[in-house]
Amino acid sequence: MRKFIRLALWTLVAFMVPAVAFAADGGGSGMGPGLGAGLAVGLAGLGCGIGQGLTAGNTTAGIARNPGSAGALFVNFILGMVLIESIAIYGLVIAFQLAGKA
């Protein structure tokens, strides 16, 4: 746990030092919009990947336990995947908006 906290703090320092250096400039937008766009797409993709994996795994387990409910589970599975994928699209839209500000 200590290693994780140390890694998280050093990662934060690595991201903040260049931001402080660019802030002294006074001009331009710095690296904020680009970093925000990357984080928007990356975190949205990470969250969607985790959500889709959990959804697919639980649906498969449900069908394996009760094969007769495959039709009802499939409909809910597809609906869930569509809603999860919309989160990734929102992240992409936010990234495009932030990239336009850079």
What is the subunit organization of this protein?
A: single chain
Largest sheet: none
Could you name the CATH topology of the largest domain? F1FO ATP Synthase
- Please, what is the average pLDDT? 82
| Share in helix | over 70%
**Total strand segments:** 0
Top-tier CATH class of the largest domain: Mainly Alpha
Per CATH, the architecture of the largest domain is Up-down Bundle
Which structural class do the helices and strands define?
Answer: mainly alpha
N- and C-termini, Cα separation: 37 Å
How would you portray this structure in words?
Helix content is 86%, strand content 0%. It is an all-alpha fold. The protein folds into two domains: 1-28; 31-101, F1FO ATP Synthase (Up-down Bundle), CATH 1.20.20. It is elongated. The two termini are 37 Å apart.
List keywords for this structure.
about 100 residues, 3 helices, F1FO ATP Synthase, single chain, mainly alpha, 2 domains
Describe what is shown at a glance.
The chain has 102 residues and is an all-alpha fold.
Element layout with pairings:
Layout (H helix, E strand, L loop, with lengths): L1 H22 L8 H34 L4 H32 L1
Helix pairs in contact: 2-3
